[in-house]
Amino acid sequence: MFFIMMIIILITNAGGRPASGLTPGVTAGFSIPIEELFFPVEPDFIPEFLLEREPRRFWSLEDIRQYWRVPGETELWRGEVRSAVDRIMEGVR
Prior knowledge:
Order of helices and strands: HHHH
Helix content: 40-55%
Shape: elongated
Radius of gyration: 35 Å
Number of helices: 4
Number of strands: 0
Structural class: mainly alpha
Largest sheet: none
């Protein structure tokens, strides 16, 4: 067994390096940059969160008005919400 291993090692090393100086297994002109193979390293710190403005303590009706929409057909939406809640609660039992 030892002699077989030695023969295999000698055969694989007997080929030597190519005369062109290229690494075996790499074709000339074709190499993939490391940046494309691996994800970039993540930073070791968490960047600070910068607020563009101070948070509001009180919202006036004029401030809220641009975000509030009155839903039409309230009974339809109540039924939808009720059925969704019922489905969720049946899964909890």
